[in-house]
Amino acid sequence: MIMNSQLESRKTSITSIASGKGGVGKTFITANLAACLVKGGKRVLVVDCDLGLANMDILLGITPTLTLQDIVFGNQDVRDVIIASKAGFDLVPASSGVKEMGQLLYEKIQLIKTTLSTIIPDYDEVLLDTGAGISEVVLQFSIFAPKNVIVLNREPTSLTDAYAVIKVMHQRFGTDSFGIIVNSVKDEKEADRLFSHIDTVSKEFLGLPLYYLGHVVNNEAVPRSIMKQKVLAQDEPNSIVGKNCYNIAKAITTWK
Questions:
Q1: Contact call for residues 122 and 44 (beta carbons, < 8 A)
Q2: Does residue 239 contact residue 221 with C-beta atoms inside 8 Å?
Q3: Is residue 28 very low, low, confident or very high in pLDDT (cuts 50, 70, 90)?
């Protein structure tokens, strides 16, 4: 298995994008960040690591014939599973509604990691769209990435669950660097307030300052792009949400 120290020595940047609870827009943000990175000249791979409830393919309007399930249980070559999206990035899709994938044993998760390691050098940026919460599957994919991003929104449960992810990863694995994206807010002022709250709690109880990557405003363009199955940052790059995503993508590339 390739460890984080080895991955960090490569030029490829690997970022996990997680959340404490579902429904905060994590997959939407992942797809849009990927499109922004592509526009910036990066070779980008997105891996749908929400193994039991994958939906990145649906968001992109893609119908995969092969998924991570075929790698785990069918010995399929990972390069045969990769799909090129219309937004310019490659996708390793996962399956949805398959109980066995959502409850993978540690050895199977390591198999996926090892398999992904064979294609990681082909890309400049790899984004891991993990599931929500603190299940073992989510945690194992998160620690695979040197950069860990947490997406939250204005809901109190989103904040408390995001802190729970940070706490578990920090106390169990020693992870000490987390980037925060605040989604679906009224404006920058609200985003700053929400970030300040979770940052203060993290510093007080964990001694761990968090890194603010940016925010995405609540805008009608978001559900419109989802219904159209198009990546908003590519389809409407000059929209306020598109600009928000470009700013976050820039912040991620400069975040050490």
A1: no
A2: yes
A3: very high
Share of the chain above pLDDT 70, in %: 94
Alpha carbon 41 to its chain centroid, in Å, reads: 19
Both tokens assigned to 15:
């970022």
Q: pTM higher than 0.85, yes or no?
A: yes
Query: What are residue 92's DSSP bridge partners?
Result: 47
Bridge partners of 19, per DSSP, are: 132, 151
User: Which residues lie closer than 8 Å to 144 by C-beta, 6 or more apart?
Assistant: 4, 7, 14, 16, 113, 116, 128
pLDDT at 96 over 80: no
Predicted local distance difference test score (pLDDT) of residue 51: 87
Residues 120, 76: contact at Cβ < 8 Å? Answer: no
Please name the residue that has the structure tokens 């995969």.
64
Rounded to whole angstroms, the Cα distance separating 182 from 248 reads 10
What is the torsional sign of CA 32, 133, 83, 90?
positive
Give residue limits of the domains in the chain.
Answer: 13-254
Q: Are 222 and 202 in contact (CB under 8 A)?
A: no
Beta strand 125-132 pairing with 13-19: parallel
| Residue 52 binned pLDDT confidence (cut-offs 50, 70, 90) | confident
Q: Which residue has the tokens 């700053």?
A: 192
Average pLDDT over residues 59-79: 93
Sheet holding 147-152, edge to edge: 83-84, 90-92, 44-49, 125-132, 13-19, 147-152, 178-185, 211-217
**Structure tokens that stand for 160 in this block:** 């408390």
| Fold classification of 13-254 (topology level) | Rossmann fold (3.40.50)
- Of 169, 170, 173, 177, the closest CA to residue 149 belongs to 177
